[in-house]
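Bench notes, bay 3.
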Amino acid sequence: MAGRLHQAFRRTCEERLRAHGLSMSQYALPRALAAAPGTAAAEPARRTFVTRQALRGVLAGSEAAGLVRVAARATSGRALPVTLTDEGRALLDRAEATVQDVKARRVADLPGAATERLASLLTAWARNLADGGP
């Protein structure tokens, strides 16, 4: 059941994000960079559950489009920091509004009490998985 719900959510987001020229993977990169600016590319890969190899392609395309900037030199170690450009931030803001709209649609027809109960149940579900269960 959860898998079907996630697939429906992802499919709807993919469809709506196309208007911004983004896939979910392409949306995930600037979102991860906004949460942790200046991190190396490996960090957004971990945050978005994408392999480093897959992220390289998204990163290269995003850099070519002027959405991200990869530093010429590492600040420490060998990893090159990646940051959003102003254009990347503006695109992320538009895409984020689209995803938030899809999230709101998930519960649009549910009464407030049902929405609160659903949130409570899902929180318990996530906690049980994280803690190893009751």
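Next record in the batch:
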Amino acid sequence: MSDQSLYERVDGPVATGSAHFMRAGGELHLMHADLELNDVRQAGLRVRCAAAAVQAGLVEYRASHLIAQELGFYPVHDERLRVAGGGTAAVRETLGAAREAGLVQLDETAVETVARRYETGGDEVAFSHFIAELTEFSADLDDFAARTADTRPADWQRLAWQLLSTFDRIRIYGQALAVINILGMTPHAVAGAGDERSNRI
């Protein structure tokens, strides 16, 4: 299988998963708008829609991960990233440059955390963490969606902010992985990404 075919097999489900994931984010932000208008019933519907979208996204992300493992994608991808970075995984430099360019919102601690995951096990470990975080969020969202009717109006605002904050944290992490994969870990590519790019996350 050619590298191009390999990337197409792995990236396809990621693109679909990301579409579901961002749809969930849209529902959660609209949920907050509903609460501002004191429409708790509609807010509850938004939570259930968001929960379904996250579940659908997870199906796609897990499928991509399984395909990547079965086809030996991760070693191929990690090697391409090392070559593009001049022999080393320049995660810190790439994320630092991307942050300066306004492409991602990460503090130094977050950059270091992502870099250590790549050093530990490359893209497989980094992506596995993304899936694990989203799985936990999905469970919390499902739990809340099942009891929205019993949630007191006074608790809605707090819960809404918690859901949005968690979603944004996971989104920013996924965005960081996308920056690394798309820009090939080469800081100078931030201004104009190279011709060959992955659409992962």
